[in-house]
């Protein structure tokens, strides 16, 4: 178990729309692909956070620190 991985996962779930969609479809795979070594217990706990709660929280986060699926990131000119 890694508190840092859990914190990073929560951050990505809130700020990265694409990761949130992949995590919703397959939490274990999305986490591994993102380099987040989460235990089964951690994955279970994170999947119990409702998608609606994540979307609402993400909507409250300033756009300057969110990755919006399909949009070009203005600060570096890269696709998210």
Which terms summarize this structure?
5 helices; 80 residues
Rounded to an integer in angstroms, the radius of gyration calculated over CA atoms is 13 Å
Query: Main β-sheet, in a few words?
Result: 2 strands, antiparallel
Question: So what's the overall shape?
Answer: globular
**Order of strands across the main sheet:** 1-2
**Relative helix content:** 55-70%
Span of the ends, CA to CA: 28 Å
What's the SSE pattern?
HHHHHEE
Low-confidence stretches: 71-80
Name the structural class.
Answer: mainly alpha
Please report which band the strand proportion falls in: under 5%, 5-15%, 15-25%, 25-35%, 35-45% or over 45%. 5-15%
Q: Please work out how many helical segments DSSP would assign.
A: 5
Counted beta strands: 2
| Nearest-integer average pLDDT | 84
Describe this structure in words.
The protein has 80 residues and is mainly alpha-helical. The protein has one domain. The chain contains 5 helices and 2 strands; from the N terminus they run αααααββ. The protein has a two-stranded antiparallel ribbon with strand order 1-2. Helix 2 packs across helix 3. The C terminus is likely disordered.
């Amino acid at each position: 178990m890694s508190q840092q991985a859990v914190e990073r996962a929560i951050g990505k779930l809130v700020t990265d729309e694409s990761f949130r969609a992949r995590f919703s479809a397959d939490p274990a795979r999305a986490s591994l692909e993102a380099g987040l070594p989460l235990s089964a217990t951690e994955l279970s706990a994170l999947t119990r956070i409702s998608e609606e709660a994540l979307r609402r929280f993400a909507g409250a986060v300033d756009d300057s620190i969110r990755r919006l699926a399909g949009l070009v990131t203005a600060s570096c000119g890269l696709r998210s």
